[in-house]
Write a structure and sequence with these properties.
The chain is mainly α and about 170 residues long. It is built from six helices and two strands, in the order H-H-H-H-H-E-E-H. The longest helix is centred in the last third of the chain and has 32 residues.
Amino acid sequence: MNTLSPDKDMELIRYLDGELEIPRKIKLEEEILQSDQLKKRLEELQQVRTLLMSRSTLETPSKNFTHKVMEGLDAQPVSSLISPRKGLLLLMGIIIASGIAIMLLSNGVFDQTTTSLIVDTAPINNKWISNPSFSIPFNGKLLINGIIFLNLGLALVLLDRTILRPLFQRRA
């Protein structure tokens, strides 16, 4: 394990890179000769440096790498996650679901202001366990209105992606 200070490691790295001034280099070489720990650490750093230097030539991109990548981007068509056909089907489904929800609202299915979902199970006759009964109040009209607005928002996004954007891209 390395018990040398980070400053000493940096000094050894600068020594390997040939960046030390001559007086400091001579002093460090004397320290290395006197300390087995410094000698061992220098050998470790030399191995790491050699490994990194040998690998760096394999990953160097060509001079015109960026130019080739940019040309390749223009050549590839932009693909959408949703094809126009699937988008139209989704759009029709959203319109139908919104229509059904609006029809249910207009017929008064959700006129009750709040409904309570009661969970009631078979009675348990045990003094240690009590019957779990709780209710979750929710507003049916608010829930359906939220679903309708989400559907309409999704419909606008799909309309833009599947019909309007391709139409205007062909015109340009």
